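Dear V.,

Thank you for sending over the compound details. I've combined the ligand you provided, flavin-adenine dinucleotide, with the protein sequence from our construct and run the structure prediction for the complex. I'm sharing the raw inputs here so there's no ambiguity about protonation or stereochemistry in the SMILES, which I know was a concern on your side last time.
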Amino acid sequence: MALNDGQALLDVTRLNRIIEFDEVQRQVRVEAGVRLIDIFREFHHRNLTLPSSPTESHSSVSGAICANVNGKDGWHVGSFGNQVVSMTMLLASGELVEIDKSHELFNVVIGGMGLTGVIVEATLQLKPINSPYLDVTCIPATNVDALLETLASVERSNDLAVVWIDAYARGDRVGRSVIHAARWAERDDTEEERRAYVQAGYERLSRHRRFGLAVHEFFGPMLSLMLNAQRLMLPVFNRLYFAMNSMKKSLGRSSYSELFLKFSFEASFTVPPAHLVCGPYGYTLQLTFPKGEAREAIVELLEICQTSPCPPVTTVLRAHKRDEGLISFSEDGYSLNFEFHPKKRHRDASRKVIDQLLEATINRGGKLHLTKDHVATPEQFRRLYPRYRQLLRYKRKLDPGVLFTSDLARRVGII
Ligand SMILES: Cc1cc2nc3c(=O)[nH]c(=O)nc-3n(C[C@H](O)[C@H](O)[C@H](O)COP(=O)(O)OP(=O)(O)OC[C@H]3O[C@@H](n4cnc5c(N)ncnc54)[C@H](O)[C@@H]3O)c2cc1C
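Below is the predicted structure of the protein with flavin-adenine dinucleotide bound, written out as structure tokens.
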């Protein structure tokens, strides 16, 4: 959720209509507050999908545009902005503008964190799929070299992939991981059958989400206590998870079919959000780096994490494709998403680790996913995003009275 401490937040949740669908072009026009999950609910049984969807299925379309979110399919379909055909934006002057890919504001708005105007509607490009199911394979990789080699072939023959990494593995095991690769499954169900199982999947997801959120709310303080043992527990858990996946592979049980809804969205409520467990001390960092430096970057970032008194609880790697958003984080490369749950007494040491991670990322020409950030300083932001000056020029021209702002904008200096 956007934050704007002490100032107004614009609620777009009631802009929730799917306006029209062009069957020939496979394009859907929606209001800004439509949630991504609603688009899947409407179109998946028709064998159409919305690429680049983040794990948070309740993101709004406009939130996904402004954060230029990424899915598990980023290396071939790019980030969310790539799926935007056009959008209608309300400027600070009160003027409505229609912005398509050829408009000079397109790359200002995509990933631009909503600082130049209010998105009111958008047209999105849907993509045909074989069925709403995925054929999933889990592939263990013993270290970073095995990971990158396997990933290269996974990227050639799969539609989605996400990698769990054991941030505690060291030495020649650094980068030990499990790749979850998936391709759209071929099935010959009728549309009615698809409608029924997508609906059932959607209901299951809603139940799990409600349950997961309630559990996290309820057990947040208890999980907080368990943090004291995370350095002992997590290496054991990680080793078991890797061993279990290796065993499944040797038993020929590492492949299965599941609904995209489950593969893509369920993880968002299995790991408790850092703020529920650690309050203001918890944080998520997603850092991208170019493909050519992947091996060195992964090793360096993981080794920095290991110097922390509280290494990440989860570490996830994804593949991406570059786009032209002025402050958008996608690269032709990979990202590592770290979820840190530090204890209060480790606040300063954790901050030092964040700074080292950001410095290493800057030195490799990488980026930081701004929608997940609440720690970057103005100086770090400017070095991560040298093109921010162009955004600032547009901002000052379109919104001279600074009508549109946020905590992030004030913290990093986009005002
Ligand atoms: C559990 C979880 C999992 C996640 N997984 C992923 C992931 O896999 N990949 C990924 O990329 N991200 C991920 N995210 C981040 C999330 O997808 C983004 O933060 C997304 O933008 C949230 O959507 P929202 O509707 O809540 O937008 P908000 O957080 O409310 O807004 C995001 C930005 O867009 C601006 N904005 C929103 N609507 C408008 C509008 N109508 N006009 C102008 N500006 C607007 C806001 O001001 C803000 O700057 C995850 C988040 C969570 C909590």
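A first observation: The chain has three domains: 18-128, 133-379, 387-412.

Warm regards,
I. M.
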